[in-house]
């Protein structure tokens, strides 16, 4: 389904990003794991299942008049990439498990398609004026953000146990353009445009 939404937002910039949606059975498995890791009682802001995505490109605050050319550019990329399988497997932290700030579940995709997809999006959005990402693309699903040092050793131990955890497999068949609105209870996401791969 496509949402011809740029006519709906006439004044306010939107906080946008592009991501591959994660299937519900995997989100349910990740949610169960998060509940177990919560027992570490570490200072972590956990991501709700509806906020878990495989982010390809964070675009940030975007004026409405930039959305239509953005959609057209990303469509060119997604039409050139066929659906592909991926697995959500393993876990870790950035910058490291010894100094965890962002907790993540890993992605296994052996064909390299996801890297070509991300590189194409990076190239096309760069042509439209978005700053190119300086860090190498590393596909993952963020599950939490560490906010302090309380019980950090227990948290690290719990995450170490997840290095071989397998949360499920899915076919990546679409990329979604999301808007996010930051609220006191956390970010609220809206899927505002969907790009079918190979279509």
3D structure, described in words:
The chain is an alpha+beta fold and 199 residues long. Helix content is 26%, strand content 39%. The chain contains four helices and nine strands. It has helices at 24-37, 67-79, 113-127, 152-160, and strands spanning 14-21, 44-46, 53-62, 84-95, 100-108, 140-146, 166-172, 174-183, 186-196. The chain has a five-stranded antiparallel sheet, covered by helices on one side. The chain has a four-stranded antiparallel sheet with strand order 3-1-8-9. The model is unreliable at 1-10 (pLDDT under 50).
Quick overview:
The chain is α+β, with helices and mostly antiparallel strands and 199 residues long. The protein has helices at residues 24-37, 67-79, 113-127, 152-160; strands at 14-21, 44-46, 53-62, 84-95, 100-108, 140-146, 166-172, 174-183, 186-196.
Number of helices: 4
Shape annotation: globular
Tell me the series of helices and strands, N- to C-terminal: EHEEHEEHEHEEE
- What percentage of residues falls in helices of 4 or more residues? 25-40%
* Sheet with most strands: 5 strands, antiparallel
Q: State the distance separating the first and last CA atoms.
A: 12 Å
Overall pLDDT metric: 92
Q: What is the number of E strands? A: 9
Unreliably modeled segments? 1-10
Question: How large, in whole angstroms, is the Cα Rg?
Answer: 17 Å
Portion of residues in beta strands equals 35-45%
Q: What structural class results from the helix and strand content?
A: alpha+beta
Any key phrases for this structure?
199 residues, alpha+beta, four-stranded antiparallel sheet, globular, disordered N terminus
